[in-house]
Amino acid sequence: MSVVSLESLFIRDDDDCPSPTENPDLNDDLDTDLEIDEREKSNKDTSTAEVYLQACKLVGVVPVSYFVRNLGTSTMSLNHHGLGPLGGKALSIALVTDMHIDTLELADNHLLAEGAKYLVEMLRASFTIQNLDLSNNHLQSPGAECIAKMLLDNISIKSIKLSGNEFTEDDAKFFADALASNYRVKELDLSHNNFCGRGGEHLGQMLANNEGLELLDLSWNHLRMKGAVAFCAGLGVNVTLKHLDLSWNGFGNEGALALGEALKFNNTLVHLNLNNNRITNEGVGMLCRGLEANDTLRVLLLAYNSLTVEGALALVNVVKNTPKTALEEINICNVLVNENFVQLLELTCQEHPSLEVHYGGVGGFIAKKPPKRRDPMKVIQDYLDKRKLRLWDFFRNIDKDGTMRVPVADFRKAVQQSSIPLDRYQIEELIQRLDRERTGMVDYRGLADTRKQMMRDHRRQLRKVESRQKKEKQKSDRILKTFQSAVEAVTPRGSMVMSPGGAREDSSGPQHFSATPLSSWHHIVMSNSSRYSVTNLSNEHVHLPALGGAGLHRPPRSPAMLSYSQPNLLDDSPRSGPCKPVSAQGTHSDPEVDHSKLSPTTNHLTRSRPALNTKQPAAKTKTSKEKKKKSKKQLDKN
């Protein structure tokens, strides 16, 4: 296939139109400025159309008449036109000279990575296109890499849609690297792709580093478990995102827990879509912990999750009990509620008039399991333990003859007449267990064996409950630990510092941790005391270890730092008292001492090692005397 260059397809105006010097009669025609502007615009549109037609002819594709008819408009919608890679090439050649289009829609055109490459070359030369739609074009990994490289250099794109392009989780790294330095892109659509665990980690890193993105659509992906937790870690430290769509991802309760932790620190998110994410009432409870500390979120969509009236009540209660909440809309349109929910919602709307809750209707109920009857043998044992009686004492009061066997009728009558809290059904259940062979008699051995079996079952049930609770706690701790480690991974120590106002406490309670980018630190410096001035911060040498298991960074050894860690060997004067002044570098300032007057020999010796203590020789003589005494004692013994 022959390569068609852009320069070869440009139409030169010199060949078609004569210059004013060649046709002097044109100078006599007097036109107004408006007529000249209209003529220039029509000539430019004509040249763009001719460039497009010639490009289509050379690459062998059929021109799109809609493009030719709508030249000069600000929006060019070419969705579902079947352009293909070559059609995208011809279109790119024509758009290089166009200065009117700022919105280009090319969804569902089967451009592939080859067509994306031609468009990227055009976007590097064009600075007018601000909104680009390349959804459903099968770009795959090569196309993702190509577009990411374009975003590194482009300064005009503000919105880009890349939905349904079969991107894998490793392709998310391309966008994370590109948007780490591109702050002009405000809207990004990556829905209907295949981002999973590692994709969530890269996207979380992207959110942590980017400071321009305001709308992000990640619906219809596979962000679950570890990927969801890593993504939420980046969301927690993001400072610009306002609209986030995470619907149809299968976040689950694990992701809801991590998202609740992120909402405690995020103070910019306004709209959150969590529709169809396998979140249950338990997950809503975890999410509500973050909503209690958040004061910016306005819209929360939780439709088509596994919620019941309990989850709906938890959401309304968190709004009612949080005066600073900003929630205005909650969507749980598939949940049937009851009268208690409606009454609670009415009370909450009196305190928060702007609140609007979409629910399925009235007719739901709180599912309660029927109360399980206690083991009758356990009831008898608790009764005896409370009165400090033995089982034998209980049976002996029934067995008047002392035969260790009593009829079933007597046993039933005795239990009914006693103060043991057993109903009729429990008594019959106990008799069936004591008289399995239907002999009509109850013996003491069967009663004792039944008690032993009851105690074994009770201990087994307790172990199951403890094990389940332990596993749930370990799971929650593991998710929180993963969230914290992910936050540390996406937050470099060199780019974030503690805000001076973050540790203050007001009357409402302790404030949350706040981190401020270094780019805005000077605003805090100007508004706070001199303690946070640039001079003081530069003198306080604080060295933080590197993240990610990297080797420790050893700072350069400066004289100011050495003065804190090593003695001043050049100064032979005695140490100054606490009242002597200390310089900014940490060394004692003494104008009477002049190190330049010391002899070279002294300088050399004092630099090599410190002076020996005068008491050390005496200590050595003392030890030698002790050795002599020991040797004399040994000789005397011999």
Structural overview:
The protein is α/β, with parallel strands linked by helices and 638 residues long. 48% of the residues lie in helices and 9% in strands. It is built from 24 helices and 17 strands. An eleven-stranded parallel β-sheet has the order 1-2-3-4-5-6-7-8-9-10-11. Helix 11 (252-265) runs parallel beside helix 12 and helix 11 packs across helix 19. The longest helix is centred in the last third of the chain and has 47 residues, at 444-490. It is elongated and about 120 Å long.
Question: Top keywords for this entry?
Answer:
disordered N terminus; 11-stranded parallel sheet; 48% helix; single chain; 638 residues; two-stranded antiparallel sheet; alpha/beta
**Any idea what the radius of gyration is?**
41 Å
| Strands, total number | 17
Mean of pLDDT: 76
Strand order of the largest sheet: 1-2-3-4-5-6-7-8-9-10-11
Helix content: 40-55%
Shape: elongated
Distance between the termini: 110 Å
Give the class from helix and strand content and strand pairing: alpha/beta
Strand content: 5-15%
Q: Major β-sheet, in short?
A: 11 strands, parallel
Q: Please mark out the parts with pLDDT under 50 across 5 or more consecutive residues, or reply none.
A: 1-36, 493-622
Assembly type: single chain
- In DSSP terms (H or I, runs of 4 or more residues), the helix count works out at 24
